[in-house]
Amino acid sequence: MINEAKLEITPASSLPELQEIKVKYLGKKGLLTAELKTLGNLSPDDRKIRGAALNMIKTELEALFDNKELELKNAALEAKLASESLDVTLPGTAFQTGGFHLLTRIIDDLATIYKGLGYQVVQGQEVETELYNFDALNIPSWHPARDLWDTFWLTDGRVLRTHTSPMQARFMEAFEPPFRIVVPGKTYRFEAVDATHEAMFHQLEGLAVGKNITMSDLKGTLEEMAKGLFGETSKVRFQPSYYPFTEPSADFAVYWENKRTGQAKWLELGGSGMVHPRVFEEVCKLRKDEVYAGQRGFAFGLGIERVAMIKYGVPDIRYFFQNDLRVLKQFRGNLE
Ligand code: FA5
Questions:
Q1: pLDDT of residue 185
Q2: What are phi and psi for residue 331, nearest 5 degrees?
Q3: How far apart are CA 2 and CA 21, in angstroms?
Q4: What phi and psi values does residue 323 have, to the nearest 5 degrees?
Q5: Which domains does the chain have, with CATH numbers?
Q6: Total Cβ atoms within 10 A of residue 212
Q7: Which pLDDT belongs to residue 336?
Q8: Pocket residues: Cβ below 6 A from ligand 1
Q9: Which of 104, 156, 183, 264 is the most exposed place for a label (fewest CB within 10 A)?
Q10: C-alpha to C-alpha distance for 309 and 198, rounded to whole angstroms
Q11: Residues of the chain with pLDDT under 70
Q12: What is the pLDDT, as a whole number, of residue 65?
């Protein structure tokens, strides 16, 4: 029986097949069980001998089945491992990455340009007091110039900063001259929103203070920025203007030769001027010392969205904040 069983067990190729063979020999109605049932018909002596022989066969058969079962299980495991093994030469699955917002990229570009000119990049706060947003900048409450900035007032009398200029006073209050800083950040105005005006937008403020600073330093600095943003052929021109915290004041435009369209244009970017002596006086009052008496400096402020709209031909400022991926994705890769 053992040899017969071996002939069937050895070629078995699956566990269900092996199970069938096992039932055939060891099952309730199996061949060995049938043999065992015949023991009753034998004499006690024969039964003893035959019984012992059948038990040995049973043990041997069980060992044969157990070994084969193990062998089949191992083979199945190996096949599974082989089929699941990693082929490192296959191309990977592409996964989506995020990207920086166009405005963040422009702020970063501006920060890089100004760091190259020895400027520190500092951040201000978006909720400001009237003191820093207006009074310290020579805009007392009775001054008609306050109307230049349509303001969001909080119920506690504070404001959402209407420009990044409050950091001029805050920085001078905390640090001594000479220094050069730029302040990028969000600003808010109670405006009727249209294609070029938002209620929330971004500005970059610049302030340089030192004994011998002149208007030509301001022009040279803005020109470096223009070249960094719009290429070596870019230049800057001033137009007389008015800001309560600068005297003289000038709006500035940059010249841009657009290589894509072949057009050259002058583009208004922001306001600037020499720091008004009254601002230094206000800072002396805040500091309770005279460190800023007799100092000179220049300041400027520009709209970041304006730069983005000009440089990348974005026709409507509202696109920046609608978070439409079709718009945002256009500015993810190399922008040149
Ligand atoms: C100012 O806010 C001054 N603080 C700038 C300044 C700083 C002058 C330092 C002198 C010295 P103005 O209100 O013009 O200035 O705003 C500056 C720039 O911000 C504008 O040229 C424009 O590009 C942008 N801007 C102003 N209002 C909005 C708005 N509602 N939406 C989008 N951009 C705006």
A1: 98
A2: -115, 30
A3: 12
A4: 55, 35
A5: 2-84 (no CATH), 102-331 (3.30.930.10)
A6: 7
A7: 62
A8: 163, 165, 189, 191, 197-198, 201, 203, 205, 243, 246, 270-273, 299-303, 305-306, 317
A9: 156
A10: 13
A11: 335-336
A12: 87
